[in-house]
Amino acid sequence: MPAAFSDPIWQKPKTAPAFKPELSSGGTLDAVIVGGGIMGLSTALHAARAGLSVQVLEAAAVGQGASGLNGGQVIPGLKYDPEWLIGHFGKQRGEALVDFAASTADAVFDLIRDEKLAVPFTRNGWIQAAHTETALKAAANRDRQWRTRGADVKLLDQTEIAALTGAKGYLGGWLDRRAGVIDPLSYTMELARVASAAGANIAEQRKVVKLSKEAGLWRVSTQGGAELRAKSVVLATNAYTDGLLPGLAQTIVPLHSFQIATAPLPAGLAASILPGGQAVSDSRRILVYYRESADGRLVLGGRGRMALPSSASDWAHLERALIRLYPALAGIAIEKRWFGRVAMTPDHLPHLHEPEKSLLAVVGCQGRGVGLMSALGKRMAGYLASGDTRQLPFPLSPIRPIPFHAFRQVGVAATIAWYRMLDAFER
């Protein structure tokens, strides 16, 4: 695929560390973490701080996957509201899960503050924009549930959302002031830097090809023949999961998230578009999400085609959405186009698995990966250090491959096309 068709706005900082393929030498490690994204690096940081010996193995380069390619929205909560979570998981676990979900944005911004990470960020909130009466009622219900728990949130009417977004077509929405935006690649690279400084060894270009257990220890084999031994293994590969753990890749449907970025907006336009610096996700079936970048561009993303892009036309649906929301941007150039891979689970919840003792896997970010995986990594490290399952906010569940998985992706592609058509009728 030509490089022009994957040209992200986020660029690796010049001061970013380079990680070589060298592995930890000798002895048995406490943990090997497969995957150098936000989940793997957060786990590594907190495990190393707890005194564990840790090796991170990244098949490509740190930040090259979804952790460095996403939209940089840091959103607390889950897809489901507190009352649903309590009803589904029971009062004790449900309440604990609500508390955890409420804390995930804090996990990111506290880390940036406490570790003095060189990460551009704005923490002025996230808006869930409603374009139908049904979506507005759902926003009111969500607002009620979080407000009763003391969250800094607000229901927006049509005038308020127009003033905050400058966009056309919304009836109202919901503002969650706990949220914000970051540069996701800078954050991922800084997370790697502090994890390394804490004692975690990070190796790039080290694809894991086999896991086996011998005398209670895991043998981790990498491409090229090198082997490590560890007491525990954490698979933090998410949408890039392959056949390393049988059945795991069949529990998720990988999707492509496409994004575009405009040229820096002229001052006159910039003043009326997201003047408060909030991030936005809308309520459409195939939603779009958008924000301003630190250098004054509008960055907008949404679901793309299931196949790899082959031309700039594969981003045309996002350009149409941009002009639908902001007609005044019709003459502004689109300077960046890129995509990343995300993982969808059938129930829209993250899944934690431990199919064998001390072999752990995490999949499913559901659009909240920056905060969710930052916070979950700390809990996972706590579990590695203590063995206490109470450290984990989600229950450990069996690996259940999706029936007819090969056909599920085709069905998702057809559903995306159908939903996009329905959305078009609701303009």
UniProtKB/TrEMBL annotation:
GO terms for molecular function: oxidoreductase activity. It is an enzyme of class 1 (oxidoreductase). Keywords: Oxidoreductase. It holds the Pfam family DAO. Residues 30-381 form the FAD dependent oxidoreductase domain. It comes from the Bacteria. InterPro entries: FAD-dep_OxRdtase, FAD/NAD-bd_sf. Its EC number is 1.-.-.-. SUPFAM superfamilies: FAD/NAD(P)-binding domain (SSF51905). This is FAD-dependent oxidoreductase.
